[in-house]
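The material for today's practical consists of a large collection of protein records. Getting from the letters to the tokens is the skill we practise here. To make this concrete, we reproduce a full record directly below:
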Amino acid sequence: AASSMHEGAFPQVLPPCSCQFGTRFLTDPRQVFQHNAWDNVEWTDEQEATAKKKVLENSQPLPPEKQEEYDSRANEYWNGFYTIHENRFFKDRHWLFTEFPELAPQCSLNHESHPGASGAVESQQNSQDGEQSGEHAALSHTDGDFPGSSATYRILEVGCGVGNTVFPILKTNNDPGLFVYCCDFSSTAVELVKSNPEYDPGRCYAFVHDLSDVEANYPIPDGTLDVIVLIFVLSALHPKKMQASISRLARLLKPGGVMLLRDYGRYDMAQLRFKKGRCLAENFYVRGDGTQVYFFTQDELHELFTQAKLEKVQNLVDRRLQVNRGKQLTMYRVWIQCKYRQAPV
């Protein structure tokens, strides 16, 4: 699909730096259709102005009763999404270990990594976390009575979808002390994870959970997780629910534990393609299938994490120019990647 940007307006490209995403730089605009994607793209002032104008044109929010309907039926919409797509829609995110070495074996949480080449084009395959199932609600959380209690390194993925992060972690990280938790808002998605032949209850625990329900129990005690992963999931929450959700998650981290996030950035192609009648609130939209999405700035995410008393390790924008060579179209993607840490003891 075509970007809303002027196809003839080519970006400026930053020189290589230590915080780049990938290493393919467009230095000659005439070469734009030589590859499928270009890294580390910096927008011109004209492009940014065009994007702002486009967003403003489609920023009239839907009536409150319509907004409430989408919010109250979110579980139904995400279950519908996964019922339709099952696991056909998704690609495993093998770029994760370049961007987030914390997920690979034998890493140090105190090591600040610099991102490398990240690939997958993400779409709405990620739902916000899911409905409380009750299966772990009665756990008292004393030693030994929660899944993975004997593990030495614990990772939780929030909004796991059909397991496109979980299964690469389990395949790549052979640390015998590793235990991976994963949860999703959609019971359909969680059932797809559990029915995957690679699902190993000895190393993994999948459960339904609603991230925005801060009163709901997690099956793990506070202060026990080394890593929490949020890949294109926070954007599915209503903006008013984000702070409480992040603050609740932060309590699960050990001292020195990290929260890793990758999500949609302001003026990403997906935001500019929304038509009138899709806006729910400022920079918050509903897709045609009823699922919702927000587009962040770096400052907004920094505020969410620091209000949860986490320390910044990394907060970067990944601007990428993707190319449809067959149709001679250019598409500008904007993603934000963050790492924030619970203060070490």
About this structure: The first helix runs from residue 45 to 57. Residues 1-20, 107-143 have pLDDT under 50 and may be disordered. Residues 256 and 342 are 5 Å apart (CA to CA).
